[in-house]
Fold this protein.
Amino acid sequence: IFFLAALIPLGFCFISTYSRGAWMSMYLAGIIIILLKNKKLSFALIALVIILSVFMPQSVKDRFGGAADFSEGTTSQRIKLWSGCLEMIKVHPVLGFGVNTYTKNFPDFKPKNCLDSIYTHNCYMQMASEIGIVGLTLFLIFITLCLFYIGSSVKMLPLGWIRSMAIGIFAGIAGFLLHSAVDTHLYSTTMAVMFYFLLGLCIALCNYARNSRP
């Protein structure tokens, strides 16, 4: 009851951010939790999405609709950033320009009327520009193996707080990774440390539960 009550102000603050990437990631996390914990709740989630779509403020509806507008706004800026980053990747596709060199080299590939040159607002593309497709591939393999291990382990965990915590962290990690496709989470030291800590914690919970089984 305490956590459900906390969801009300948290949900209000979450919607008030107007971050479409965060909304999209939250939906993914919610779907994962429902599928792993209680599939019957999927109908409640669908109903909730329909209700929110009808009664949400017009400003939020406009924000959703703005995602399809490629001519202006943050969507347009991201497209420009990504196109410039793709040009960087084409120059050094294998090993990239070097770690933490994106900001230094991007101005040479920057499209016209592109305002932001510090980050490309896509962690995976920025990784490819700095450590090449080889480095990005190794990172994705590592993350995929971790997620596969957690996903296969969670289903075998007995009901209880360990299973619930593992599911919650797993869903949060998935949402974080999805949001990293439109923002720069993995290039924030604080958020990157939090991500790897939670990833390790989730694997540790799965290992503990597996080893504790009779």
In short: The chain has a mean pLDDT of 83. Residues 123-154 form the longest helix (32 residues). The CA atoms of residues 84 and 111 lie 6 Å apart. The chain has nine helices and no strands.
